[in-house]
Automatic annotation (TrEMBL):
Its cofactor is thiamine diphosphate; Mg(2+). 2-oxoglutarate dehydrogenase (E1-like) component of the 2-oxoglutarate dehydrogenase multienzyme complex (OGDHC) which mediates the decarboxylation of alpha-ketoglutarate in the tricarboxylic acid cycle. The OGDHC complex catalyzes the overall conversion of 2-oxoglutarate to succinyl-CoA and CO(2) while reducing NAD(+) to NADH. The OGDHC complex is mainly active in the mitochondrion. Involved in the inhibition of cell proliferation and in apoptosis. It comes from Ficedula albicollis (Collared flycatcher). This is 2-oxoglutarate dehydrogenase-like, mitochondrial. It is found in: Mitochondrion matrix. Gene3D superfamilies: 3.40.50.12470, 3.40.50.970, Multifunctional 2-oxoglutarate metabolism enzyme, C-terminal domain, TPP helical domain. Its EC number is 1.2.4.2. Belongs to the alpha-ketoglutarate dehydrogenase family. The lineage of its organism: Eukaryota, Metazoa, Chordata, Craniata, Vertebrata.
Length: 1012
């Protein structure tokens, strides 16, 4: 038994009262900060009762009243020296302690306690700050933390012992080790000299550990045990030979590309070749623990090497990408070779288990792929019932500059532990080049490390010198075990260098001359490690050379085969295949879409459930009771508003086995308090009810989830979720449509062009509240012009109207943009999204005021079996009965229709003015609008929109209308004047401008005498 434990036991046996554990913890935390440089909220007193006495002693020194009065007397007497007289009730205790050599004689007790506390503080200092002096930079010229300062509480020289009140004479004293360290192994005490030696070995060599900010004692202890235990970092000779072979493949692959295509950009891995064995180690260990599917995202650097040596894509397919004479046989533009992805199922040779690997294609926007990977991972876990993430996991690779600089990294981290977004832990691997493109890290970030953003979610960060392959492998094994054990993120920071410039054509000496002088002298890691293994007899020189020759031969043979490839097939690079959805050629199984209506019985059933609370003893808000009652009345009257139409669309596809996921800020209730898909018990905290999940006995699940206040990260996540399966309706709703612009990168780089670049179909739905109501420039316009500008249909090409024109036009477009004016059409377009034989992104400009507009209701008759989505809703009033008498046809879309109808009626122009609604704007419904235009041969053709002239739809529809009429008739504009801001925030100005363009729209002489 240790002295301290015996001390505590003796005190207890003599009836000396110990403070309550909780009280000691509280007081020690409050009073002990100055004595323990913890830098964390983890209680330093964690452990057994053996530490209570010394903790109380220091609490007493700070405040004598903080301990029981008997201890106050005892400590006062002990400090007073031999002449001090203990009270009678304490005398027996003191004599007993003295007889055991434990009594606090003058100064001795204080020195004993101080020295032990000093050693504990020393150990803690290394655990907290040892990484600042670790030898992390392979080049030896930079400090990985951007600071050459050595913390004063680390014993780097003998004279620093004085910081703790220790002296050189104390180095050979033996000290009891606290329970918060494992450096002793099976020993409970060590000399101070040995303690410092072991701490330096653990924390100040090629591995730098950041974990003491984690506020969970168990997790900290787990990490300490993995790194502090003496001799724990051992590898068998077989492991070392495997590591060497993987380094050979990593380096020789880059050498081969450099020899064959010396003038081609490939963003090679030179300087961080260890990344390939690192990834393979993570995958091996994860496979061993049960992982079956690994989804990866990464930037350019090293992508081809990862494809070749981790995913195991055929080398000839990779080499094909370098042949400038080959033409792609597939649809779309394709992409540069270092943006492409891959999906591959194979046997893991290390574990002999089947594993699926997917590397996501992504653009040059380096970290944009992060949330996409997380979304796809979440979807794969969801569909497999893998709620704990034991079968599917994600690995994200990062560059140091992007990891620190890109805000989407922070957004993605903050999704990591949210119930509807967690993937149960991601392993992040940072390729830390210690430089951006040409930017010095000291100019690129304000934090010590590029990885500091991970601290916000208590993810441990393992920095490691990338020129020490065994240290890297050990760290990667621990990272995989951490993720499996705690289901939390972890970061591996590979501190390396970039042997060439930003790419193979770049000259880095322009801006980093000193760094690259050192790099030119740097011995490659493969040679370093091979020399080491040869020296210790693990491999022979001949074996090493044979390994190199074997892989070089593999590359040459694949190069020869690549010359036989006649065509590049982008489909070979799919990262998200949908087996069984398309035919063998990757084409849709049909080019037709069934009617999207459903039976009246189903409509009524969904309406009744949407109006109810299908859980007993559930107290809802009184205001919500009125809403549900109104839904019930509408259902009886065979009517739907916007919210009920959405409910019926979702509910009907759930019955067909289609999972529905709705995500975004405040979507459960709806920004405009119209949806209420999640009911909250008013009397029981956190008790909720989702009626949508009570529709049918064997329905698909409905997931509705309020997101974090993020657009970029969350939209990327939902895009990734939609990639996993075609049999899901995945919707993201912006709080206001305007806010999608903070997710513009996902829209521009993934959604609008994903199929063209990567042959990646995706059926994600974007719901963007839109409408001019005087609510200001940030709460009005979803900027439809941006989506229309990126649509790929040709404004000047007059199409051939075949029987399957509608579906074939949808198949050829890059996305669909709609602005529905009726709840029924919204219902149909959501159902069409699932019933189409292919998947396209759908952009829906959803309303705000129309959510409760008395005229914006639809009858069941517009939604029952046999009905379908109306791309164009033609005039069906008096004007349509006598089209030759019509003087003006106003084409419009969305909410402005109701303003126009009201104004037409007030001016009694219902026979002279026809109003046609364009519900699907892109792809442009040439066929139906041609019929409308021809129907009114003598009428003015007017496009009316509520948006400003330089916004909205006019620039998109004008050339297409002119194509329809072969440039023989003008299409006049009516709407607001051009403006820099999307809308006014002044209600009066809004109404004045509305009045102005409505007057113009119904002034039948407005365009007489004007030319076009």
């Amino acid at each position: 038994m240790s002295h301290l434990k015996l001390f505590a036991a003796v005190l207890k046996s003599h009836g000396i009262k110990l403070l309550e554990k909780q009280d000691i913890a509280r007081r020690a935390f409050l009073h002990g900060q100055r004595y323990f440089s913890s830098g964390t909220s983890e209680p330093f007193l964690s452990g057994s009762n053996s530490n209570y006495v010394e903790e109380m002693y220091y609490a007493w020194l700070e405040n004598p009243k903080s301990v029981h009065k008997s201890w106050d007397v005892f400590f006062r007497s002990a400090n007073a020296g031999p002449a001090a007289h203990l009270p009678a009730q304490q005398e027996g205790k003191a004599s007993f302690l003295q007889s055991h050599g434990l009594a606090p004689t003058p100064g001795k007790a204080e020195k004993l306690v101080e020295d032990h506390l000093a050693v504990q503080s020393l150990i803690r200092a290394y655990q907290i700050r040892g990484h600042h002096v670790a030898q992390l930079d392979p080049l030896g010229i930079l400090d990985a933390d951007l600071d050459s300062f050595i913390p004063s509480d680390l014993i780097t020289t003998i004279d620093k012992l004085g910081f703790y009140g220790l002296h050189e004479s104390d180095l050979d004293k033996v000290f009891q080790l606290p329970t918060t360290t494992f450096i002793g192994g099976n020993e409970n005490s060590l000399s101070l000299r040995e303690i410092i030696k072991r701490l330096e070995h653990t924390y100040c060599q090629h591995i730098g550990l950041e974990f003491m900010f984690i506020n969970d004692v168990e997790q900290c202890q787990w990490i300490r045990q993995k790194f502090e235990t003496p001799g724990i970092m051992k590898f068998s000779n077989e492991d070392k030979r495997t590591l060497l072979a993987r380094l050979v493949r990593s380096m020789r692959f880059e050498d081969f590309l450099a020899r064959k295509w010396s003038s081609e950009k490939r963003f090679g891995l030179e300087g961080c070749e260890v990344m390939i064995p690192a990834l393979k180690t993570i995958i091996d260990k994860s496979s061993e623990m049960g992982i079956e599917y690994v989804i990866m995202g990464m930037p350019h650097r090293g992508r081809l090497n990862v494809l070749a040596n981790v995913i195991r894509k055929e080398l000839e397919q990779i080499f094909c990408q370098f042949d400038p004479k080959l033409e792609a046989a597939d649809e779309g533009s394709g992409d540069v070779k270092y943006h492409l992805g891959m999906y591959h199922e194979r046997i893991n040779r290390k574990t002999n288990k089947k594993i699926t690997l997917s590397l996501m294609a992504n653009p040059s926007h380096l970290e944009a792929v992060d949330p996409v990977v997380q979304g796809k991972t979440k979807a794969e876990q969801f569909y497999r019932g893998d709620t704990a993430g034991k079968k599917v996991m994600s690995i994200l690779l990062h560059g140091d500059a992007a990891f620190a600089g890109q805000g989407v990294v922070y957004e993605t981290f903050h999704l990591s532990d949210l119930p509807s977004y967690t993937t149960n832990g991601t392993i992040h691997v940072v390729v830390n080049n210690q430089i951006g493109f040409t930017t010095d890290p000291r100019m690129a970030r304000s934090s010590p490390y590029p990885t500091d953003v991970a601290r916000v979610v208590n993810a441990p960060i393992f920095h490691v010198n990338a020129d020490d392959p065994e240290a890297v492998m050990y760290v990667c094994n621990v990272a995989a075990e951490w993720r499996n054990t705690f289901n939390k993120d972890v970061v591996v920071d590979l501190v390396c260098y970039r042997r060439r410039g930003h790419n193979e054509m770049d000259e880095p000496m322009f801006t980093q001359p000193l760094m690259y002088k050192q790099i030119h002298k740097q011995v490659p890691v493969l040679k370093k490690y091979a020399d080491k293994l040869i020296a210790d007899g693990t491999v022979t020189l001949q074996e090493f050379e044979e390994e190199i020759a074997k892989y070089d031969r593999i590359c040459e043979e694949a190069y020869t085969r690549s010359k036989d490839k006649k065509l590049l097939h982008i489909k070979h690079w799919l990262d998200s295949p949908w087996p069984g959805f398309f035919n063998a050629d990757g084409e849709p199984k049909s080019m037709s879409c069934p009617p999207t209506g459903i039976s009246e019985e189903m409509l009524t059933h969904i309406g009744n459930v949407a109006s109810s609370v299908p859980v007993e003893d559930f107290k809802i808000h009184s205001g919500l009771s009125r809403i549900l009652k109104a839904r019930s009345e509408m259902t009886k009257d065979r009517l739907v508003d916007w919210a009920l139409a959405e409910y019926m669309a979702f509910g009907s596809v759930l019955k067909e086995g289609i999972h529905v996921r709705l995500s975004g800020q405040d979507v459960e209730r709806g920004t405009f308090s119209h949806r209420h898909h999640v009911l909250h018990d008013q009397e029981v905290d956190k008790r909720i009810c989702v009626p949508m999940n009570h529709l049918w006995e064997q329905q698909a699940p409905y997931t509705v989830c309020n997101s974090s206040l993020s657009e970029y990260g969350v939209l990327g996540f939902e895009l990734g979720f939609a990639m996993a399966s075609p049999n899901a309706l995945v919707c993201w709703e912006a709080q206001f449509g305007d806010f999608h612009n903070t997710a513009q990168c996902i829209i521009d780089q993934f959604i609008s062009c994903g199929q063209a670049k990567w042959v990646r179909h995706n059926g994600i739905v974007l719901l963007l509240p839109h409408g001019m109501e005087g609510m200001g420039p940030e709460h009005s316009s979803a900027r439809p012009e941006r989506f229309l500008q990126m649509s790929n249909d040709d404004s000047d090409a007059y199409p051939e109207f075949t029987e399957q024109f509608e579906v074939s036009q949808l198949y050829e477009c890059n996305w669909i943009v709609v602005n529905c004016s009726t709840p029924a059409n919204y219902f149909h377009v959501l159902r069409r999204q699932i019933l189409l034989p292919f998947r396209k992104p759908l952009i829906v400009l959803t309303p705000k005021s129309l959510l409760r507009h008395p005229e914006a209701k639809s009858s069941f008759d517009e939604m029952v079996s046999g009905t379908t989505f109306q791309r164009v809703i033609p005039e069906n009033g008096p004007a349509a009965q006598a089209p030759h008498e019509v003087k003006r046809v106003i084409f419009c879309t969305g909410k402005v229709y109701y303003d126009l109808v009201k104004e037409r009626k007030s001016q009694d122009l219902e026979k002279q003015v026809a109003i046609t609604r364009l519900e699907q704007i892109s792809p442009f419904p040439f066929d139906l609008l041609k019929e409308e235009v021809d129907k009114y041969p003598t009428a003015d053709l007017v496009w009316c929109q509520e948006e400003h002239k330089n916004s909205g739809y006019y620039d998109y529809v004008k050339p297409r209308f002119r194509t329809i009429v072969n440039h023989t008739r003008p299409i006049w504009y009516v709407g607001r004047e051009p403006a820099a801001a999307a809308a006014t925030g002044n209600k009066n100005m809004h109404l004045v401008s509305l009045r102005r363009f409505l007057d113009t729209a119904f002034n039948l002489e407005a365009f007489e005498g004007k030319t076009f």
